[in-house]
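pls design
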């Protein structure tokens, strides 16, 4: 039997709360940190995250605090359940505390604006290049994980011992975890699928059918691979849990925030109005801007993601976007890839 450990989850959103519950089920000692003292008191009193994960009871064994030092001192593992655009500010505070020697599990699925950095890159830019980072990704909506619905995820790290340590101490019968070392691909997969999910939502909002949406998702996956491989990712990663797995879930699930954004865009609503009415963050919106910035720097054209950017930041009409994409000059399907950059893995042992 695996010994229990102490786990701190930084971030009281739905995903942070769900991961805290997974670790309580696993038998670990767990503390959940909220950035807001008043809400931490509500969580502790009501034993329910009424704002971000309603309907799920929080067990008494789950410690709750708004004191960051107390939270950091408590955990052997620190789970960073913070959206990408807020992660850096928390890391600056973390840098002043005793975090060294603790594994940092990043769960954010976005790319930072302006810097265009992935979550592990943000962490290492603030805490140092040797910070022990493990990225957790895959098709894993908090609403289902918290309710013990079977879920498969993946943890990725350039240090496999750290990834395996997290795998061993986080998994339970309803939360299966795989490991791999391609943290670049795992993070790009988790981030880029949110942009494609917005496009998939637009298809729904415009009342298109299965043909349209399936074609869009397929071509969207190609774009994810192209950008990921250009940054050193293994293309195989995008055909795993953090790629196609997460993409499918995000493009079809009733829980998908990015899908919701796209649906409302397709119905004719404006992005500012949509975001103003949402309690939780839709990472795909800011990630779309970051992807646009990356593509401009690298002279890379990703048609679907480019058109999502234009809808979000240039107010392009969704129906005009569809016309633009469908009227592009057709070419061979696999021309979308630079096949010379693909590195096939040997099946020999």
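designed seq:
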């Amino acid at each position: 039997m695996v010994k229990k450990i102490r786990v701190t989850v930084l971030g009281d959103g739905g995903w942070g709360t769900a991961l805290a519950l997974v670790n309580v089920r696993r038998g670990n000692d767990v503390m959940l940190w909220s950035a807001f003292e008043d809400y931490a008191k509500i969580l502790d009193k009501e034993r329910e995250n009424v704002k971000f994960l309603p309907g799920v009871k929080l067990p008494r064994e789950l410690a709750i605090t708004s004191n960051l030092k107390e939270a950091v001192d408590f955990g052997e593992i620190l789970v960073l359940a913070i959206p990408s655009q807020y992660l850096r500010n928390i890391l600056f505070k973390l840098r002043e505390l005793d975090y060294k020697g603790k594994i940092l599990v990043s769960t954010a699925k976005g790319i930072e604006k302006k810097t265009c950095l992935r979550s592990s890159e943000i962490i290492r830019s603030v805490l140092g290049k040797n910070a022990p980072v493990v990225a957790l990704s895959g098709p894993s909506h908090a609403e289902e994980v918290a309710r013990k619905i079977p879920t498969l995820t993946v943890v990725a790290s350039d240090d496999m011992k750290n990834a395996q340590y997290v795998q061993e101490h986080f998994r339970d019968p309803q939360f299966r975890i795989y490991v791999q070392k391609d943290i670049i691909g795992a993070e790009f997969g988790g981030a880029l699928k949110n942009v494609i999910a917005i496009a998939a939502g637009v298809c729904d909002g415009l009342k298109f059918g299965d043909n349209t949406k399936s074609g869009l998702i397929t071509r969207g996956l190609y774009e994810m691979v192209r950008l990921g491989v250009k940054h050193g990712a293994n293309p195989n990663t995008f055909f795993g849990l953090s790629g196609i797995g997460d993409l499918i879930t995000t493009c079809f699930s009733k829980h998908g925030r990015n899908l919701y954004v796209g649906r409302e865009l397709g119905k004719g609503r404006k992005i500012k109005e949509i975001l103003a009415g949402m309690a939780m963050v839709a990472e795909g919106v800011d990630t779309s801007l970051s992807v646009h910035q990356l593509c401009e720097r690298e002279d890379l054209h990703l048609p679907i993601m480019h058109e999502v950017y234009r809808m979000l930041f240039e107010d392009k009409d969704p129906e005009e976007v569809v016309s633009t994409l469908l009227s592009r000059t057709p070419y061979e399907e696999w021309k979308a890839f630079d096949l010379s950059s693909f590195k096939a893995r040997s099946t020999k042992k």
